[in-house]
Write a structure and sequence with these properties.
This protein has three helices and no strands. By secondary structure, the protein is mostly helical. It starts with 14 loop residues before the first helix and ends with a helix.
Length: 83
């Protein structure tokens, strides 16, 4: 009878590998979210005519219009204070 000791088979990755994988995945998700936010910000700054011409969703057109109205109200309030 041969009694050699064998190493147990590892069934899960070491903790440091799991944590590094989670960190990398979190970083990638954060980058993707920042990219989407930047793209949406760029879309919001387009004129309503351009948004309509490119076939943007009505929600995006409404968000752009709302953003434009907010900037105009802030500008008017600032100019009113300077009078």
């Amino acid at each position: 009878m041969d009694t050699t000791l064998q190493r147990p088979v590892q069934v899960s990755r070491p903790l440091w590998l799991r944590l590094s994988g989670l960190l990398v995945e979190g970083w990638r998700r954060w980058q993707a979210a920042r990219q989407r936010a930047g793209e949406f910000e760029a879309l919001r700054r387009l004129s309503p005519g351009v948004l309509h011409d490119i076939g943007a969703l009505p929600e995006w057109q409404a968000a752009a219009q709302h953003w434009r109205e907010q900037r105009a109200a802030e500008r008017d309030a600032l100019l009113h204070r300077l009078d």
